[in-house]
Specification:
Strand order of the largest sheet: 13-16-17-18-19-21-24-25
Organism: Pterocles gutturalis
GO molecular function, one term: hydrolase activity, hydrolyzing O-glycosyl compounds
Strand content: 15-25%
Protein name: Beta-klotho
Shape: elongated
Number of domains: 3
Helix content: 40-55%
InterPro entries: GH, Glyco_hydro_1
Oligomer: single chain
Amino acid sequence: IDPMVTLYHWDLPLMLQEKYGGWKNESIIDIFNDYATFCFQTFGDRVKYWITIHNPYLVAWHGYGTGIHAPGERGKITTVYSVGHNLIKAHAKVWHNYKKRFQPYQKGMLSIVLGSHWIEPNKSEDALDISKCQQSMERVLGWFAKPIHGDGDYPEELKNEFSFLPRFTEDEKNYIKGTADFFAFSFGPNNFKPPNTLPKMGQNLSLNLREVLNWIKLTYNSPRILIAENGWFTDSHVKTDDTTAIYMMKNFINKVLQAIKYDNIDVFGYTAWSLLDGFEWQHAYNIRRGLFYVDFKSKKKERIPKSSALYYKQIIQENGFFPRESTASLQAQFSCDFSWGITESVLKAESVASSPQFCDSSLYLWNITGDGLLHKVKGVKLKTRPAQCTDFVSIKKQLDLLEKMKVTHYRFALDWSLILPNGDLSVVNRQVLRYYRCVISEVLKLNVQSMVTLYYPTHAYLGLPGPLLQAGGWLNQSTAYAFQDYAALCFQELGDLVKLWITINEPNRLSDVYNRSSNDTYRAAHNLLIAHAMAWKIYDEQYRSFQYGKVSLSLHSDWAEPANPYFESHSKAANRFLQFEIGWFADPIFKTGDYPATMRDYISFKNRKGLSYSSLPSFTSEEKQLVKGAADFYALNHFTTRFVIHEPQNGSQYEFDRDIQFLQDITCLSSPTRLAVVPWGVRKVLRWIKKTYGDIDIYITANGIDDQSLDNDELRNYYLGKYVQEVLKAYYIDKVKIKGYYAFKLTEEKSKPRFGFFT
């Protein structure tokens, strides 16, 4: 381990403050140089990296201006700049001293650590905003960097703004210019706090370390850079579980790596701040910045590694970041009967009016009174051809798109409220049924099979017939019986053409709608499960023997990863998320006929503590028998991987019962709606399904991402390639019985995220 030694990190001997007034007095320059000489003589044979002063901006601005830092003086602005002047001259003197007397035989390097914020314009195209950002950087970083790393003088902007700014003579400029062997840079919370003391100029503070490194490269002629201080802080109550600090560190170091790889910035080292929790200046012990936790109240003051220490150690061992794909990419094929599909949400059946069927046998006169209208001629009937499927305008469009995609399967949803507007069989909209039958039969002519979803609710459109909605929707058990009748009608009318049925799409996401209380959520879910099982049973008993189809329900099945892999509580939280999200519906059907034991146990544990009054409904023995085994395959919609934290919550809500929070990993590639692109997550969830529910057939019924691009959708291309590759590994290496993959989705909807393959 190489020592990097800082001569002055704000620990001025009290005597020098009392006798001379500290850095306000020029006499300190020579005294500091004497101290430096002593250190070079004593330690220089072992030290190859010297820092003269740590972050002189903070010493001058907060030590002698705002009074936040030692020596706590609230001086005039003139004092602040004369302190800065003395700090620069002291540094330069020490550099020349080392260069002349010690470097020739000690062979070390010497610099000064300069700290800064980063700032971005409100409007990236606005020249005035950009110029304000430039001024902001020059007032903080440029104040010290331009004399030392530039031309030996202060930024023009500072000189024009402050007439009282101390001046350097020409000799001093030449003496100061170039007095650093590398650019030592500090980027941490002290450079951003308190924000009201920063020259923001009405622009936006930013933590983008890559951008500020680019600014240094462009402004100071591509220097060699050492990150001499970087990190963030946690609140004092956080002990060793400093998950946020891990993700801040990951982001910062990743930005440094991007700057090296993509911007050719010469960064030769990185220093995490800091080793131990300690006294944090004006924050005292209210924040923590250490990699090791210290309990200040204990006698022994033990040092305990936080998760950030373990994570930093891992980064050092790997010397960077590795993709988490479990194996290298695989060259192999799926079986010949594998289905390649595309998914569409609810197909809105066209009315006869919007799509003329050309089967009206009446004769009309047009525009006889100049009114532009058709007038029927009474008593005349013409011979016409029967209605044809292609008369529906939208069917032609769909066929065209499907032909372009070369898929083998097309998944779409029917609209229950259109087919049975009263919610029962008293009124059946035959025209709508005819439309759907037309879609299926025309698609078959292209050798494309349909996977038909009976019920596809969303946040915006619950999709229930009006009378059922008014009667309480899924909170009312009679809705399950109404669904059974609706399903039977669809099997009867369309089943001869359909081999794959989905009863309900993502019932495990209806918690977003029935969220008044957890008991509402659990009651609605219970009725949805019963509805699905009754529909499956009707198919099994009355239609399977001659239609030969298969029936299941599609579950939203995102993977969950512990946000902090070093804490068991996070691993347990990730497993709990899977049980509450997937097991909630999958366990009753594919396993036990009952809700997951994990779910029941956790809710009763919270009941006992008085943190929740939730209760899961019980299945009667008849219901258990009905539900268990009521699916012919497992269908999953998978989009992303969630990073999960254990976060105790109280209150009787489904969301609170789980005691979890999600964390957004900002280093992760993600979409405009912040879906993280984590390809290996799909393989993990497929393996988990096989391990939990046995060797069952699996269809991925939706997988896709939103991409803003109107034509060159690079993100979607990348996403599909990587996710299908992981599905192939699950199929080929892990022997998961995947029968089909359906990309999401065929077309875009107005004013919604862009998931479509076609605009």
